[in-house]
Amino acid sequence: MTAARRRAASACAACLIAGCGSVDSPSSAPEPSPASSITVGTALASVQSLSRALDDTPRSIDPQLATDVPGQRVLDDLFEGLTTIDVAGKASAGVASSWESSADGKTWVFHLRPDARWSNGAPLTAGDFVYSWRRMVDPGTGAEYAQGLAAIDNALEIAAGKKPTDTLGVEALDDHTLRVRLNGPTPYLLDLLAQQYMYPVYEPAITQYGDNWVRPEHLVCNGAFVLRENVLGSRMTLEKNDRYWDAAHVRLQRVVYYILTDGSAQVSRFLAGDVDWTDSFPANQRAWLKSALGEQVVNSPYFGNYMLGMNFAQPPFKDNLPLRRALVLALDRAPLARYMREGVYEPAYTLMPPLPDYQLPLPDWTGLSTEARYALARRLYAQAGYSDRHPLRLDLDATMLDTGSRHYLEAVAANWRSVLGAEVHIDEREFKVLLQELQLHKLLLFHDAWIGDYPDPYTFMQIFYTGNGNNHGGYSNPHFDQLIDAAGQEADAGKRFRLFEQAERLLNDDAAYIPLYYYATRHLVKPYLRGWQSNVMDRNLSRYMYLLEHQGR
Description:
Blueprint: H1 3-17, E1 39-44, E2 49-54, H2 69-78, E3 83-85, E4 91-93, E5 96-101, E6 107-112, H3 126-137, H4 155-159, E7 170-174, E8 177-181, H5 189-192, H6 203-209, E9 225-231, E10 235-240, E11 254-259, H7 263-271, H8 286-293, E12 297-310, H9 321-330, H10 333-340, E13 346-347, H11 370-383, E14 393-399, H12 403-420, E15 423-429, H13 431-439, E16 445-447, E17 450-451, H14 458-461, H15 478-489, H16 493-509, E18 514-524, E19 529-530, E20 546-551
Parallel strand pairs: 2-11, 14-15, 14-16
Antiparallel strand pairs: 1-20, 3-4, 5-6, 6-8, 7-8, 9-10, 10-11, 12-16, 12-17, 12-18, 13-18, 19-20
Helix pairs in contact: 1-12, 9-11, 15-16
């Protein structure tokens, strides 16, 4: 690229990063009512009906097949595992009222509540968990999270088709006692058991109705709510489950989830009083929403990483470390996050978001000046075989984007164009289509964000393990796998974290992904909605929530 052309491209990138000509500007959004217009009392509201917005239609409400955050939110209300999530986002007693483990941490025994019931009144037993977990790792189920059970004896071998499902390390000692055998010490086990894919499912309904068992008229669940209505792409209506073991402490009688894929639409519905809780709002509307709504605007750290993935099995990324590194180095993450994401998110330089006691292994290039980083990126780009006359031309595949996210990725593409001369086009498609293409490893460069299931490095590292169902880029490094295996056998927490840090350095050296920013929550919450609090896992179960008397909306 000539100097004149490069200056022009740089100006274009600067314009995009600064938000020039944004059609999503606050001036075009509806004017919010002042927060003071809502008066909140101290007594419970007479009508306990909660309206929540979802960013998208859940991909599935089959616990073993759900992989997305919207699905998890609904499933957290419909089902419950051996453990559950408390108000603070921590694992606590669920279907299991107590448990104990062996001295080596490899054998756990869980004691189920005698009053645990399915929504049809049938007793919930230890055998239901045995069936559900075996179903999870059965290759015939096609569960993407099958490797999530890797800590349990034989889970990986079963998922790979090497052993029968009845060899899984879980057994019912009696109707109310479940024994779990692990491969090694698993400090995150109680958090793992609170994940949606560890929830029990009702075998008779699956046997009778097959894939249709999740329809409202067939679904049998064990959580605080039952499904009464599912209008595809519009809303899901839940009602209180009177057979839930802790129903006496559930105050909400009804929860309606509205599917609102446009963040601005969520804001409008919130301001109109149609929803009490939004999943998100456009980042560039934060300032004016905060000025008018005050504490109704909720931002807090969220255990997730917004990143891009690359296909290691096909050109141009196969066996082309210089190109992968060039794309990683060329991006100006801090200004991209500041201007295109309104400072809501922190720029990411690692796979793992910040976690207490985990030392983020920052890549060496983070210590370079901008010009030195640019120069290195250009040398690597040329080494990879690209130039002004032969630029990289590639699609960046993503799900359907809101305006702010689209502008952000356009700015990423402009950043690559200005620094390297690469031509990257944003290609949007429906989430289900994108996911199918990812599973088939057809996409070359793709949006591959990840939200951690539990506060432990393994939840992020597992997605790069050879053969993992969520390893959409097909990355494989035997040394990395060995470090993850070693961490799985390490009982000392400090040593375990050091192994994960070594593994992450390998990912950085291999340019296995392109980190962009760490997530943060973006909720709007009415002041009369109580029984929740911000937490790094951003899981807020409706069973704890309640509405206070109020005037205004």
